[in-house]
Amino acid sequence: MHHLTYSEEELLSSIPYDEPLTANGVRCHGGFVGGAYRSPRTAGRGPAIAAWQAQLAARGTPLLAIAPALVPPHYPSAAQAALLLREGVREPLVRTLTTIAIIEGFGAMIRDQRVPDLTRCVREPLDGTAAGHLATGLFEAHARDEAGFRSEGGHKQMWEAARDLALASPPVPPDVLMRLMTGRRAGSRQRLFPQLDGAFEELLAVMVNVLVIEVFAADTFGWAEMVLGDPEVSARPREAAAMVGYIRSDETPHVEYLRTALSELRACTLLGARGEALAGGEVIDGLLARTLHVLTNQRPRLQREETRADIAAAVAGHRDAAGLQKRFDALEEEWSPPAHTNRYS
Ligand SMILES: [Fe+2]
Ligand SMILES: [Fe+2]
After folding, report:
1. 5 C-alpha vs ligand 1 centroid, how far in Å?
2. Model confidence pTM above 0.85
3. What residues does the ion ligand 2 have nearby, CB within 5 Å?
4. Where are the alpha helices (DSSP H) in the chain?
5. Nearest bound ligand to CA 155?
6. What is the pLDDT of residues 60-104, one digit of tens each?
């Protein structure tokens, strides 16, 4: 087994590359070894996560997993998106890809996530665990992967490159960021476990939320690889799909460190602000159930309504608007979330 304690420098270090990744003329993170893409900041982070997971397995602690059946399918489907592109209706897809790029950039906020003194919030010691390394490398590596670091591009720039490769640098609707900002007034989260220190509950809620978003994003990656890799509608199918594939592989450590840390905390006794004991499983599972409920019900429904309105507006400019809308609607696929919220492997 590899060791369990890592310095911040180790968790942020990358392997040596033969050649860096360049996207749209921007030097990005990651690079190629023997022609294969290798993600950034995995020289220490990769073995660290493997070691923490092995430690959980040795203790018989289950590793948290989100059931694939819970993942809402991307709307519009790949077939619907390809139909629109074949018919020259590009704006909705350009908007979607630009929105994804901006949201990736917002990922930098994870470095500002406050981590309270965990020795006061958790009864068991967290040395040699993923949960014990959040503020000393894991959040910072995550932030750099999403938004880039210094002169080096990250997922934001890589999504823009995938869009521009596939759609030959299309004009970007001017209101993408504005729309995103006005739709984002989430307000403060309701406390589920008011016995816990507020900052600690907030940390757990953010980790659960980001984990679910990261897992759900995998479906969007598959969708984008299909659409942007379709030679019938993509200008540079091979390069565009490969770019999405690189981003996808960089997301793996995000899902893995978050589910590892949450699994560790699930197995712990959490301490309330007045020293009362709460089972980690009860807290993590409660937060997870709430997040899954919102992200499998309200959110996909709202997203679908908004996207449908954008598409209808864009289709209205087509020479056979009614016919195209009909063909688009004929490709609709129904999806409703399963009643059951989760399982653990
Ligand atoms: Fe990302
Ligand atoms: Fe991510």
Report:
1. 25
2. yes
3. 214, 251, 254
4. 8-11, 45-59, 78-86, 91-106, 139-147, 155-166, 176-182, 198-228, 237-266, 280-296, 298-315, 321-330
5. 1
6. 999 999 999 999 999 999 999 999 999 999 999 999 999 999 999
